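Hi Y.,

Following your request, here is the sequence exactly as I used it, all 411 residues.
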Amino acid sequence: MFDPYKIRNDFPMFRNHIQMQNHDLVWLDNASTTFKPDCVLDAVSRYYTKETSNSHRGDYDLCYNMDMEVLNSRKTIANFLSAKETEIVFTSGTTSSINLVAFGYGVKYLKKGDKILITQAEHASNVLPWYKVAEMTGCEVDFIPLDKEGRLTLENLKKSLTPDVKLVCIAHVTNVLGYIAPIKEMSSIVHANNSLLVVDGAQSVPHIKIDVKDSDIDFLSFSGHKMCGPTGIGVLYGKFSLLLKMDPFMTGGGMNAKFDMCGDVNYLEPPLRFEAGTQNLEGIIGLHAAIDYLNSIGMENIEKHEEELKKYCVKRLKETGVCTIYNEKSESGIVTFNVNGVFAQDAATYLNSKGIACRSGQHCAKILIDFLGTVATIRASFYFYTTKEDIDALVDAVITCKGGYLNAYFS
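Below is the corresponding structure, written out as tokens. Let me know if you'd prefer a different format.
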């Protein structure tokens, strides 16, 4: 039976009773990063204490064992997404994965007159690479309008598509408002326009079950550290037929079959074509352990728990009468709000004084602030180990914060 209180025993960050400002830590910044369970820490430690070796670079047992670890990790990740092993590319994270598509595919195939569609709600990592592609190729970046709540709708997507659109690059779950895009339906619409769908899965893959084949996604990017894995490891999923057409973003050892003094180079087939140099082996091993752990909990349980927490948090914050909530109707475990009359970062500093970790500012979605009509917001984000008591602590602090920020902070 799913029990977040019991689950917390798997995490040293909870067992060690970490404090901030002499208060027990209340961690509500899971959209930024997540805590690591024992199994992940043990896997990484085992690599450094018992299994240290490089991969693909030795004819001895330790190296062979590491090759098998990487292959098994790739297989586990592929199964997690309902993909093929040859469609899983290891990267340093979501940002690196999106840049790989931008420069490996976008720069190679887009030209003047072509268009890339994004939305105003995108993270900088799903905006700036496409700006760079436009600068380098002469193509244009256009925006699909959001509805009045900040949601990307099928209707607005259809209206924005023209024959010139080659790529549609959107977040499955936006990192500020937390709306879940209907990816399967959008994929059908995008493909009917002979365009490709590039999905930022940083805020979706850790929280909801994704089947890339059923959804017919062309590219999907995500990071390990947002799903209980180590930092510095991520994944790009790409349809194999598309990966075959792409140029490598980085070149070097481990991704070529042959090169000569004339400058001729034969690259390996994907995914190794895109994995130049020594990979983040401890990250790969740790991500494998993290996915095994998530599978043991059940992605359906995670999604249901976060839905309940979201509703509870919105209800409690509304009851205070002192908050503006910007995404009351979104489906994911993200609540973005402000304490009326208190600047977001001042409020977050006050929350910190009570041991509560929330994110404040623009959350790397700098062009969304015009839509929201505010310069900054507070974001509370949940995971499967978040409890209602965490939310109660947040609400109690919000009430005292509004009661007089300076008086409350210095009392």
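The chain has a mean pLDDT of 96.

Thanks again,
Q.
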